[in-house]
Amino acid sequence: MHRRDSSKPAKILDREAAEAVAVAALSFLVSRPEDLSRFFALTGLAIDMIRQTATEPGFLGGVLDFYLGDDRLLTDFAADAGMPPENVAVARHMLDPHGWQA
Fold it and tell me: What pLDDT was estimated at residue 99?
């Protein structure tokens, strides 16, 4: 993945930006087979279900929830994406501000 200058954090201003963070997180997860296997085990999904499930409400938020539950994965993704780890929590909130609490 392309690394951004982490001294200039990305701003999460709207749902579209939050979705972009979640899609980047999903792409990063796919590049890490061990973490992807754990994601599948925890969610009950299978690889062939990703395309269909990815369009369902709540899926992208669930991806970010997975990251927020794993500090190592969160910090690895944030470093790779060139953003502070806090942006993942902000993006998660933007995706569902009424249904998610830190």
Answer: 58
The pTM score is: 0.81
- Nearest to residue 6, comparing CAs of 89, 77, 83, 85? 83
pLDDT recorded at residue 98: 66
DSSP letters spanning the chain? -PPP-TTSPPP--SHHHHHHHHHHHHHHHHT-HHHHHHHHHHH---GGGHHHHTTSTTHHHHHHHHHHT-HHHHHHHHHHHTS-THHHHHHHHHH-TTT---
Closest CA to 14 of 102, 97, 100, 98: 97
pLDDT value at residue 47? 84
The token pair at 102 is: 């830190």
For the cut 50, the answer to whether the pLDDT of residue 4 exceeds it is: no
Closest CA to 4 of 70, 64, 77, 74: 77
